[in-house]
């Protein structure tokens, strides 16, 4: 599906806020093992988590950073955002509201 040039123009807030937000969410999903390891370590270590969880924190940062720096991943998230934006402009309904199930009985 090809968008017209005007449809692909991104505002500053879209480039610097909205697309990176999608990137963070998707990167966390893809790095879920590292997120779980770090979360477990933090829960188990309490106040000493800063010292005890360095290895888990480094692994999580490395995983997330690899996605943040990947131009193909950025393009994937950008295309997802553009599809959501196009759908919103067409229907007027945000994605989150569309994905919520409507009541089946009235």
Can you tell me about this structure?
This protein is mainly α. The protein has one domain. The chain contains seven helices and no strands. It has helices at residues 5-8, 12-30, 32-45, 49-52, 54-68, 71-91, 95-99. Helix 2 (12-30) packs across helix 5 (54-68), helix 2 (12-30) packs across helix 6 and helix 3 (32-45) runs antiparallel to helix 5 (54-68). The radius of gyration is 18 Å and the shape is elongated. The termini are far apart. The relative contact order is 0.12.
Range of strand content: under 5%
Can you summarize the main beta sheet? none
**What oligomeric state best describes the polypeptide chains here?**
single chain
How much is the average pLDDT?
87
Q: Say how many strands there are.
A: 0
Distance between the termini: 38 Å
Q: Mind telling me the C-alpha Rg?
A: 18 Å
The count of helical stretches stands at 7
**Inertia-based shape:** elongated
Overall tally of domains: 1
Helix content: over 70%
Contiguous uncertain segments of 5+ residues:
none
Order of helices and strands: HHHHHHH
Structural class label: mainly alpha
Features:
mainly alpha
Task: Give a short synopsis of this structure.
The protein has 106 residues and is mainly alpha-helical.
């Amino acid at each position: 599906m090809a968008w017209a040039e005007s449809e692909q123009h991104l505002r500053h807030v879209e480039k610097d806020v909205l697309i990176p937000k999608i990137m963070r969410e998707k990167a966390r999903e893809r790095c879920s093992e590292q997120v779980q390891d770090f979360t477990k370590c933090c829960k188990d270590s309490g106040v000493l988590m800063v010292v005890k969880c360095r290895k888990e924190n480094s692994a999580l940062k490395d995983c997330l950073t690899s996605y943040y720096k990947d131009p193909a991943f950025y393009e994937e998230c950008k295309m997802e955002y553009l599809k959501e934006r196009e759908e919103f402009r067409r229907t007027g309904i945000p994605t989150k509201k569309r994905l919520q199930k409507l009541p089946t009985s009235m």
